[in-house]
Amino acid sequence: MSTLLKTALFIDGQNLHSAAKALGFDIDFKRLLAEFNKRGSLLRAYYYTVIVEDAGHSIRPLTDWLTYNGFTVLTKLARHYDDGEGRRTFKRNIGVELSVDALEIAKHVDQIVLFSGDGDLQPLVEALQRRGCPSRSYRP
Questions:
Q1: Taking the model in full, what pTM does it have?
Q2: Domain of 23: which CATH number?
Q3: Which residue, of 75, 77, 86, 112, has the fewest CB within 10 Å?
């Protein structure tokens, strides 16, 4: 009798989207959930993203769909700041929130799978591994 692995997915939405777009493909989130449900016990599927007000497009349809289909969606408003040369720039980072949540859930799961297009989360993967939680990072 095989034991089902308890898994948590962490998706860095903005960085994964940018990487997938640069590589010319779309992410099928419904299939992603189905694949991990087949492989074990999917305890949580988190999706993190930053919302930019007045961006000319809305991520709301995606976040609504993800929530309806079983993802835990966490959003944060982008912070505006002046870059020092009179240009308005956005701070678009949700890595701290994702990292804290991953470290907190690590003791309750057998593995964590991180989807991102950003190498800045590598220290998180290493911290999870030091705690004995097998973690993999998928970067397209």
A1: 0.84
A2: 3.40.50.1010
A3: 86
